[in-house]
Specification:
Length: about 180
């Protein structure tokens, strides 16, 4: 089982016990904008997803890790997606589920752990992130972690009947 340990949090692979947490996250309409989800997920589908979550990132091109505190509270998720081993790049997205856990450095520490994992284990050349133009917390987080804004996707996402721009951030590892 993959576990990445930081000072205040650790990242771990998905477990069957995460069913209720994932179910709540995937069915929270407030989060759908970030994940481009349009429909709810059933417990059955999430259970199937969890049963296959052990698959290798090289096969399924994605990896979802759970962000946990050392008292084993489940704080959120960090996803690696669209993994491209030919070009050594992967997208990254992060979610701290509950407002009371946000702004405490958990996301920063999780992103730092994933940056290190990407360099040492996946031998990445770059990470990238897609961030809504009005998601100031994520913009600050990614910029503090060395990501640079490299573009704006104009009117990229339709949210509540209005088109919103999406920012493209990139971190190129210095080797």
């Amino acid at each position: 089982m993959l576990t990445l340990k930081g000072e205040h949090i650790y990242l771990r692979a998905l477990e069957p016990e995460d069913l209720d947490f994932i179910y709540l996250i995937e069915n929270d309409e407030r989060i759908w904008e970030m994940s481009t989800t349009q429909t709810p997920y059933s417990r059955f589908l999430i259970k199937q997803y969890l049963e296959n979550a052990h698959q290798d990132i090289y096969d399924v091109k994605q990896l979802r890790l759970v962000i946990c505190s050392y008292d084993d509270a489940t704080l959120g998720l960090i996803d690696l997606f669209d993994f491209n081993p030919t070009h050594n790049r992967v997208g990254v997205g992060i979610l701290i589920a509950e407002k009371e856990h946000r702004g405490k450095g958990y996301g920063k520490e999780a992103l730092s752990l994933v940056k290190n994992y990407g360099r040492t284990h996946l031998r990445l050349h770059q990470l990238y992130a897609n961030i809504a133009f009005d998601n100031t917390a994520s913009i600050k987080l990614f910029e503090k972690e060395g990501f640079k804004k490299i573009g704006i996707k104009k009117e990229w996402n339709l949210v509540d009947g209005k088109y919103k721009d999406e920012l493209l951030y990139q971190l190129i590892y210095v080797h």
